[in-house]
Amino acid sequence: MSVTPDSPEDRLRLSAYNAERLVAVLATLADRIDQAVSNRNQELVDHYQREFQKASLKFMGNVEALLDEYYLMRGRKRSRIANEPLEPRELEEIYASVRRMIDLLPPEEVQRLEAASPQRSPLPKGRLDVKG
């Protein structure tokens, strides 16, 4: 079951939380790719590279959603056509705002966000497992 937050602030928190989780997923997949390369397991390298590409697309989608919600909160509409770059101070402000929101979340809010987040795909079993 998917929960859709009602306010832009809630959607911003959810997008930020999901993006932060995806960074961890990307880091794990990068480590697994490195391990598979060092073990010369091309099948596993190919698998983890595909998973990395999928996670990268999800991450970029979350970043887009995060920016959209941030602009909405500020009362500005973000132009997707122009895709204008943000000013450095705007980037710092976005980062600081999102960081404060995540750091101040109570444990029950973190659980709610986890329940609303899409689940990760399971890791492959059997001969694709990395031997470490």
- How many strands, which pairing sense, and closed or not: the largest β-sheet? none
Whole-number tally of structural domains: 1
- Cα distance spanning the termini: 36 Å
Order of helices and strands: HHHH
Helix content: 55-70%
Tell me the β content.
under 5%
Structural classification: mainly alpha
In the predicted model, the low-confidence regions spanning at least 5 consecutive residues are 123-132
Q: Helix count, per DSSP?
A: 4
Structure overview:
- The structure is a single chain.
- The chain is mainly α and 132 residues long.
- The chain has one domain (8-118).
- It contains 4 helices and no strands.
- It has helices at residues 8-38, 42-73, 88-103, 107-116.
- The chain is globular.
- It starts with 7 loop residues before the first helix and ends in a 16-residue tail after the last helix.
- The model is unreliable at 123-132 (pLDDT under 50).
